Amino acid sequence: MVQRCYEEYGPVFTVPFFHKRLTFLIGPEAQEPFFKAPDEVLSQDEVYGFMKPVFGPGVVYDASKKNRQVQFQSMAHGLRTSRLKGYTAKIEKETRQYLETWGESGELDLFHALSELTILTSSRCLHGDDVRENLFKEVSQLYHDLDHGLTPLTVFFPNAPTAAHKKRNEARAKMVELFGKVIKNRRDHPDVKHSDGTDILSIFMDVKYKDGSPITDEQVTGLLIALLFAGQHTSCITSTWTSLFILNNPEIMKRIVSEQMDIFDSEPDAAVDYKKVNEDMPLLHNSMKEALRLCPPLILLIRYAVKELKVKAAGKNYTIPKGDMVLISPSVGMRIPEVFKDPDTFDPDRFGPGREEDKSSPYAYMGFGGGMHSCMGQNFAFVQVKTILSVLFREFEMEMIADKVPDIDYEAMVVGPKGDCRIRYKKRQTSK
Hints:
The chain is an alpha+beta fold. The chain has helices spanning 2-9, 28-36, 52-55, 65-78, 81-99, 110-126, 129-134, 136-148, 152-156, 163-188, 200-205, 217-247, 250-264, 274-279, 282-294, 330-333, 378-395; strands spanning 12-17, 20-25, 42-43, 105-109, 301-305, 309-313, 316-320, 325-328, 396-400, 407-408, 417-418, 422-427.
């Protein structure tokens, strides 16, 4: 629908939806004010309030502006470069342990496998060793119930009396209880080594708001849920799309494997350290960016117009009135042929030297949003996905069972693959 309206009406158009007006901004020029506008003009609070039953009261969109700033600062602190360097080793360790269960050869659903692996690696980095080693199964099941309690109905009726919402509410209460015990145990026994201190739970436990009040255990749990939600969906979906697009393109796959072997051939047992992941894998990095361009997990980003917003696009001036829901669509905006050549083709080289199509405009590429609300976890996502795929492509020869990349599941809340994601794999004889 968005693509059709863009082609018919241009970069700015409004669609009535029940009693609301949905105004879409499509293309780099039209999208610029969306990303530049402050919260006092375009607000998230009125849009994402439906997440309160998942995250809990006083967390992120339900927090006061001052408290939210402190929460976001603590998240950013936990995702800074110095911590990412330590997370890389944890992600590699979890990946290798998980891949040992695959055996020498076989077939499996790659989407399912990478979903499992993503939550394992996320738990190790976010929750700490004590939770990952002793409580992972419980946390994973509770997360599953929370995730399945987020449906299209939730957006409009977040507290509707459905079975999914009932399980969601029960899961959040149990999650608060579980992490409450973990936090109490850490505080009661500070001399015991519960983790190495780099996990984000450790950071959240020490948060104090600007008025001096400490963060509550329930809010700590809510922030962990919020990070796990954002990271789990983005990383597992993006690692799956990246892998499938690579496997579907023999020339790119050959180059990916060659890039990895060039890095590790002289030291096949060397660890996947942060420098290698961040600096030495440009093709894998660009393949991930291209998968995000073609298949962004969030197909709509939404704000509420608290004040009227001026927009200029295609030589015309528009005024979006107060009260409109303002939307951009990464899935449409990143497939505009005037911005990205042959936009439906998987071409990671479009981001390479001499082309750099993503830099044609500051708001052409939206793989992780943009502007003041761009995803603060994007560097963690790149490290997580690239570390996992670096190990995977060096350890196994793989091929898709289906003859094409699956369709995109536009019916899902967070858009992933819809169809056959199975692969055949065989252990590489050269791997160490």
